[in-house]
């Protein structure tokens, strides 16, 4: 009976760990998208400033 409880606990732990990994990945992807948009905006502003200077 103890083995069944251990197996259930192990499976539950593994499921929670996988959920945490998936959530962390989604946060990393969202962060990368935000940084990408920020970099693109900065590049656009730099191009605009260069065009005005010429």
Average pLDDT across residues? 96
Strand elements, count: 0
End-to-end Cα distance: 80 Å
- Given the structure, what is the number of helices? 1
Any idea what the radius of gyration is?
Answer: 23 Å
**Strand portion, in percent?**
under 5%
Helix fraction, binned, reads: over 70%
Counting helices, strands and paired strands, the structural category is mainly alpha
Give the CA-based shape.
Answer: rod-shaped
Order of helices and strands: H
Chain-wise SSE layout:
Layout lengths: L1 H52 L1
Write structural notes for this entry.
The chain has 1 helix and no strands. With 54 residues, it is mostly helical. The N and C termini lie far apart (80 Å). The relative contact order is 0.06.
Q: Could you give a short description of this structure?
A:
This protein is mostly helical and 54 residues long. Helix content is 96%, strand content 0%.
Question: Which keywords apply here?
Answer:
mainly alpha; 1 helix
